[in-house]
Amino acid sequence: MANMGHAENFFWSIESSDEMKDFDRVCIYVDNQFQAEDSFTALGSMYFIHKALKNVYQYDFEAKDFKAVSGQTKYVGSLDGVTTVEKEKFPKNFWPDFKWSRKGFMRTRWIIHNQGLDLVNVHLFHDASNLIACNSSPSIYSANRKNALRYVINRISDSRYTPLPFFVFGDFNFRLDTLSLVQHLSTATDVQTVKKDSSNEVEKIICEEKDNDHKVLLQIEEKLFAYLHQAVFREDNGRALLKYDKEVAAFQDVIKEEDIKFPPSYPYSEEYAKPTQYMNTRCPAWCDRILMSHAAQDFIDRRDDGEKSVVYNTVGPNVCMGDHKPVFLSFSLKTNDH
Fold first, then answer.
1. N-to-C CA span, the chain
2. Quick check: 118 pLDDT over 80?
């Protein structure tokens, strides 16, 4: 609540900046209805449309019809009566141990160059404890995310409205297969498990190198994931770890993704002077993603003119952007009317 004012200033500074002056249509949707415990998602979607782009239409979910987009429309607050956006918080039974969460999705529907598509902003469940995350493979948290994403895909593909190609983007909170990764990182170590005195509960896992003075290579606690050689997460953009990034694979029947060539997008240090350093609170992972349906991937224009026609990357790799690095996907739509 304290920071929403900053968010509104942020929208305004983008809108009024020189760089955006050629974007003559703006649609902003921000859910900041904090008091609405059953529906608050904290999601926001901003769409800027360039003046060169003609004939952009947006769907009205109530009228079940498309209308031409013009001017600037801003909805900040409750989105309950806004008919051009569909927003839903995940049902409580998705996360039975959590009393309150802001996770959910927000969908808008468009026609651009005669191509209909859904743009869906999602926020899935995080890992509450590193210790529980490395108990099983896949972890309990991974299973919760899978249920939630399957729910979103089913919802946007159901018969309420004609299903269209879709892009799903946001903080999926996808994590690496922690158990397999920890087993890999600790192969040449002595593993020690420390339990709480009062119960049989594991409090920390410590992996010490067998030689080298028993140096601690990896220490895991509920909110600590301290690995000695942090560079591995950024080396070659963390490529060696992509094999542990398994959560999208469960959706290959309906979802595609461009190749990841950027380092894990979370959890970065929030110290201004350390924009490329990870915090040791969680194992770095590709939490922030842009996924698409097979049909959506088919209308990406892959011009072969030497120009990089599709770019999937992080924003501000060398700038402190908070604990997540935003991710962007830039591409041209295939079109018959250039």
1. 45
2. yes
User: Taking a C-beta distance cutoff of 8 angstroms, is the pair 314, 190 a contact?
Assistant: no
β-pair type (86-89, 72-77): unpaired
- Rg (C-alpha) for the chain, rounded Å, is 22
- pLDDT digits over 55-108, tens only? 999 999 999 999 999 999 999 988 999 999 999 999 877 766 666 678 999 999
> Helices (DSSP H) in the chain: which residue ranges?
4-15, 130-133, 140-156, 178-185, 294-298
DSSP string for residues in 77-101:
E--TT-TT-EEEEPPGGGSTT-S--
Entry pTM: 0.94
Q: For 228-241, what is each residue's pLDDT tens digit?
A: 998 999 999 999 99
Residue closest to 210 by CA, chosen among 226, 232, 187, 229? 187
Give CA–CA dist 221/133, Å, rounded.
11
How far is the C-alpha of 217 from the C-alpha of 176, rounded, in Å?
18
Alpha-carbon distance 22 to 24, whole Å?
6
